[in-house]
Amino acid sequence: MKIDFTLNGTPVSLESSPVKRLLDVLRDDFDMKGTKEGCGEGECGACSIFIDGRLANSCLIPAAQAEGAEIVTIDGVRDTEAGILITEAYAEAHAVQCGFCTPGMVMASIALLKVNPDPDEQAVREGISGNICRCTGYDMIIDAVQLAAKRAKERGLAW
Fold this sequence. Notes:
Layout: E1 2-7, E2 10-15, H1 22-29, E3 48-51, E4 54-57, E5 70-72, H2 74-77, H3 81-92, H4 102-115, H5 121-127, H6 138-155
Parallel strand pairs: 1-5
Antiparallel strand pairs: 1-2, 3-4, 3-5
């Protein structure tokens, strides 16, 4: 099946099985290695992407669902102003240890900050709740998201 979509701002097309996981399409066909496979069951968040602006687990999405969609991966946000700001905040708050969960956490953080640019602790906990971190612990991640929110406000950055 031919599938056409936009990937990180660039129109793309590929021949793929319609039931191949979007995660595998991104990693294998487009070399988007920032999007990780953790659990493969939609529970850990390591494979988080934006599809048409909504946060989603790419391991649960069949490739056919990408038809006509706008898909953004961590590879597409890491060098943006928002991506740099949030990753710097993660590093400064020591919210990264092994780094495996970081791409999904960053995507979830950006999704949260788009709808709530000044989240309290509870809002951050809810915003990242679909993502699992086994190393760092969530307190430092919460600190990082709140630090990024503060800096974005100071800089006039809209997520």
